[in-house]
User: What shape does this take?
Amino acid sequence: MKKKNIINWVILGLSMILVLSLSMGLILLNTLSKSTKLTYLFEDQGEAKSHIMVILDSAYSVYHEALLLGLTEQAKIDGFALEIIQLEGANYAEQVMATLKKARFAQVDGIILHAFNHPLLAEEIEVLHQANIPLVTIHEDVPGSHRISYVGVNQYQVGQAVGRLFVEELDGVGKIAYIGKQSYNRDLIGTENIKVLGIKDVFRDYEHLEVSLVTYTQEGQLSAEAIAFQIFQDYPHINGIYCDDGHNTLSVIQVMIDNNLVNQAKVIGNGDLEEILEYIARGTLIEGTTVTNYEAIGQLSVKALVEHGHKGYVSSYMDTELLILTRDTVGSYRIEKGGQDENR
Amino acid sequence: MKIVNWHLVKNNLLAYALGIIVLMTILSLFAINMMIRYKDQMESMFEKHIHLSEIESVLASMDQNLSGFLSTKSSNRLNDFLRYQSSLNTLIEAKPNTLYTEEDMLMKNIYYLSLAYQDQAQEAIHYKRQRSVVQYDGAYAESLAIKNDLLSYIDQLNKKQLVVNSMTYQTFVHVIELLLVITFIMITVLILLSLCVVYLINSKMVKPFAHLSHAAEEIAKGNFETEDVVVDSQDEFMILAHAFNKMKNSISDYVEALTLKAETEAKLKDQEMKNIQMAYLLDQAKLYALQSQINPHFLFNTINAGVQMSIMERAKRTGAFLETMANVFRYNLQKIDASCTLGEEVQNIKDYYELLKARFGKKIKFDFFIDNDTLLVQVPPLILQPLVENAYIHGLSDSEVGGTITLTSVHRHQDVIVTIKDDGVGMSQEMIAKVLGGDMDLDPHLGIGIRNVKDRLTLFFHEQNLMKIESSLGIGTKIILRIPEQIEHQDGVGIYGTDI
Assistant: This one.
């Protein structure tokens, strides 16, 4: 009888194991069907309403993290599928033209473009407009074109802010060199940099302040170093340098450090790279920097398309905040930025 | 509604078989399902690759034929181009309406770019036909650019699909491994379960079988007193055990009855044999008596006539002799199968003695030592006379001096011992054995008389060893009869006694 009881208990145990195994097997079988790892556009696996192509210049990739963050966050909210294309190489302009054609053939629902002011681009934007494909420009506007909106800081105002900062730092006396990021064949076009115009506008009231040199780097970070070295060698009177790119700013600083030219010139940079903020905080080498809120640019770009889609029109300019960080304000900015990074 | 008895072995086996079938079916379906999902998953993993490869191949062929047509204006090239164009349209099929994944986005691009490519290709063909070289060259360049974009997207999609498939495959392999382990566990558990159930059913069957076979062996040995087989389970074995016990008990009762019947028949047969023997002996005695008898009526009438003549002739001794003779003859003619008292037998011997005395005078002498308490003992008739006659005829008749025949009757323990003794020639032991053994070669009077008395005594009292003969040659013979104590009278005969 005892043996029979043991057997009965064994049968019960085995039956439970069998049932458990079968249940687990069925659950796993179900998992098998769902094991395909699709890359859904949204976390809730919902459907996108529109397909937006975002064309960016990888030379400005330092800002892309914030820009893409803003773009993707807003796209999730508005149900836009983003196709991000980061073009590499020196022939950004040519690649942009080809990509815009591709976008037209692919019948995308909208385009966000890291633009440059060029007639050819304006023509292509016109063709897209004819094809009912709205386009938003960022970084640089293409005035006179049928882009639906420009999203970004007012470049002229950036120039003015930089000019004011130079006035303060140089006590109204100095010669400034402007080192710009690439030109997209600007030299051929002959249009003047709007930022430079802004600086000059401020310097108009200061006869001893002028923009002595405007130059542009080519592809590659070392280009800025070479230019900076040339400036210090060939233009010793230059006591102020503005770089409109973060990496170029650091390249100029490095030349100054390497060649013991620390007090040679006051440098105003661009962007909120940690190294730049550190130099500003220490009060050495970099006097200030202009910071663009790229996350806001990303968000507003998408919003512009949404608004255009709903209403058929949208504001031609969507200005984002411009920050001028100096030694006085960099501390609080760093704290605020640190908190935002943690929250992300 | 019939309630199913789950204790029955039949139902147990049925339930076990059905259970195994159901579980095996579930396991098989599980395995088949697994294989089907595996197949579907593999198909889905490579479906898109195959599809995209086909599109790529068709595009390449289209471009080749387009460039060939633009170069040579060959109608074959054009036909081939159109054929591939048709294939491309089949491949890209319907416009993608859903946009859930990055793959959907890329497929959408591929779809529209395919249409754009075809448009540009058609434009090039159109310009070619118009011989507008610049235009068709431009259109072809455009189509080429679109084709490159298409191939770029196909490449992107393939890479993405590869990444997705790699991740899927890893998960897939892991899940399959787990499923295989689970399947193995299920098979093992199923085997163990089956073994346990088989063991239970087997043990349920073996024990009663063992009891039954043991009981059957005992019965085969003739032991019907073996205990009933007890089976507690409410199944066929209980029914079998009940039937077996019933059979065992029936056989036991039947054997008992047969035994009893056989014993009874044996007793009856024995009794019948005894009766037949008694009848035979009686017949013999009758015959023997008849040999010595004449017609009773004539005899007694004649004797009476003689008695009357003796009275008339005043011959008292003759009259007394004739009356004594009549008494003897009367006694001999009584029913031989009735019983009488010992006293009547003794009186008959006394009368017989009177007859002998008349013939032989003092030559033959009789002595009587009779205990009066023994006279009422019931005995078969004519048991003493044949013995006395034998004593006279074979013991004394040849002796010139004669002899004495002594008749005694005493109580000994519960029995009455009657002794007939003569001092005649005696018998050898061999003779005694022959007499008592019924040797047919003996003198019929000697053998039949003594043996007749012996046998009738045995039949009357249903006991053996009621007669004993002691004799010595030249000295004499003593016949000792043991009359058993009479407690129940069955035909007037006592049934207890002791051996002589």
Observations:
- Chain B touches chain A through 50 residues (CB under 8 Å).
